[in-house]
Design brief:
about 190 residues, alpha/beta, Nucleotidyltransferase, domain 5, five-stranded mixed beta sheet, 7 helices, about 15% strand, globular
Length: about 190
């Protein structure tokens, strides 16, 4: 008799920004509940991301979030911070006998029956796309809160990514506690 596995999708958001955390999500959801148009969060409009997010959190059996903040990113580097956020998100769900699909080419150190790193998995595997949506929307909400604290950087618009405007604001105001000091161009200041 074939063993029954719980399928888990894991992805992250926020590897490239100059500010804010890296956020990962682990999701357990039946594929029948996922919107047909689901895709990598970067390929979905903000309006649809928010709509899909509401569907996913309503229909998911469970989902877990992992967050690693800029100070730790600077200490352990973004690669290790991403894997740590993924591990935290996975540890925040409670299933046994899991088959885990992870976006990317590296796997976090998680306790699962089987795990697979899948390059471009967020585009190819709907449950990873669901994790991508949860991670991105969660991170965007965090950046909106940071924007209230530091409106001069306009985080609500660029979410901490290295846009021309963001770099100009760093040059004008310096950095705040939410900036990653180990990222260029900040580490060159």
């Amino acid at each position: 008799m074939e063993k029954k596995y719980t399928i888990v999708g894991i992805d992250e958001a926020g590897r490239g920004p100059l500010a804010g955390p890296v956020v990962a999500a682990s999701v357990v959801i039946e594929e029948k509940y996922l919107p047909k148009e689901i895709n990598d969060s970067k390929k979905v409009s903000e309006k649809n991301r928010n709509l899909f997010y509401e569907i996913i959190i309503k229909e998911a059996s469970q989902y877990g979030i992992g967050i690693v903040y800029p100070r730790e990113i600077d200490e352990i580097n973004i690669h290790n911070a991403t894997l740590e956020a993924m591990k935290i998100s996975y540890n925040n769900i409670n299933f046994k006998n899991c088959r885990v699909y992870i976006d990317g080419i590296f796997k976090p150190n998680i306790n699962s029956e089987e795990s697979f790193a899948i390059k471009h998995g967020d585009r190819l595997i709907p449950i990873i796309s669901a994790a991508s949506i949860i991670a991105k929307v969660t991170r965007d909400k965090i950046m909106l809160e940071i924007d209230k604290e530091f409106p001069e950087y306009n985080f609500k618009k660029h979410k901490g990514y290295p846009t021309k405007q963001h770099v100009e604001m760093i040059n004008k105001h310096g950095i705040c506690k939410h900036h990653r000091k180990s990222f260029k161009p900040i580490k060159l200041l």
